[in-house]
Amino acid sequence: MRVGVLCSGRGSNLRAILEARGRGEIPGAEFVCIVSDVAGAGCLDIAGAHGVASAVVPSRDFRGDRPGFERRLLETLASFGAELTVLAGFQRVLGKAFLGGFPGRVMNIHPALLPSFPGHEVWGRETAHGVKLAGATVHFVDEGVDSGPIICQGAVPVLDTDDADALSARILTVEHRIYPAAVAWVTSGRVRLQGRRVALDGFAPSGEAAAARLVWPPLDA
Ligand code: GAR
User: Fold this and answer.
1) Full-prediction pTM beyond 0.85?
2) Spatial separation of the C-alpha atoms in residues 181 and 115, rounded to whole Å
3) For the chain, domain boundaries
4) What residue spans of the chain are helical by DSSP H?
5) Predicted pLDDT at 170
6) Do 160 and 131 meet the contact criterion of CB atoms below 8 Å apart?
7) CA distances from 62 to 9, 37, 58, 59, 121 (A)
8) Residue 19 to residue 160: CA distance in whole angstroms
9) Fold of the CATH domain 2-211
10) Which of 49, 61, 107, 152 gives 20 to 30 Å between its CA and that of 135?
């Protein structure tokens, strides 16, 4: 499957995905382009270092014209023949104009356990609320904000001493583990959408065995 990645910033998730590809862990994907909406963003250097073509579609050139911005993104991805779009730290909300061109084929990672804490700057809200588990969610993108069907979630504990920076760093480590895996599942055809629920072919776990590992603080604390 030909994959285009949209980024806005430093690109650490992009790097994790391309490193996983380099280790042969995403055999179903060919990464055809990285598109940044911010000129000079770190993600463009990462694309270059991994030998992937890149392009810039500056969102600042499209102020007040979101459909025009989205059409230009679509044209750019189409020019590389992308079949799946992976959002990796892309900081723009995409609407109908874009999603219509990739129906059911846009993935995103969000640094919270959705549907809790959608939107921007989640870490301070999580520490202020006092949640004990935080984490990251890989999901398909629909027209809402961080509201599409969930493919995978990874949890991390929140420590009493955490501030937003400490928590975001811990969540990022789980992002770098789950996003490459989820991209591998989707691009190898293992993921099936059943309404809002996403099933992973070939995986039939025991819920009881998994549950004990997902408690924080641990019950023997
Ligand atoms: C990541 O934490 C990602 O989950 C988040 O932006 C960061 C990008 O970091 N994404 C969003 O907030 C999406 N709205 P990266 O550029 O180092 O991958």
Assistant:
1) yes
2) 21
3) 2-211
4) 12-22, 42-49, 66-79, 96-99, 122-129, 164-187, 207-211
5) 98
6) no
7) 18, 10, 7, 5, 24
8) 33
9) Rossmann fold (3.40.50)
10) 49
> Is it the case that residue 123 has pLDDT exceeding 80?
yes
What does the pLDDT look like over 16-26, one tens digit per residue?
999 999 999 99
Q: Tokens 């000079």 identify what position?
A: 40
65: helix, strand or coil = coil
Does residue 133 have a pLDDT over 90?
yes
Provide the b/e sequence for 3-41 (b: ≥16 CB within 10 Å).
bbbbbbbebbbbbbbbebbeeeebeebebbbbbbbbeeb
**Residue 111, pLDDT above cutoff 90:** yes
Tell me the CA–centroid distance for residue 89 and ligand 1, in Å: 4
Substitution site in 6, 43, 175, 179 for ligand 1 pocket (most atoms within 8 Å of beta carbon): 175
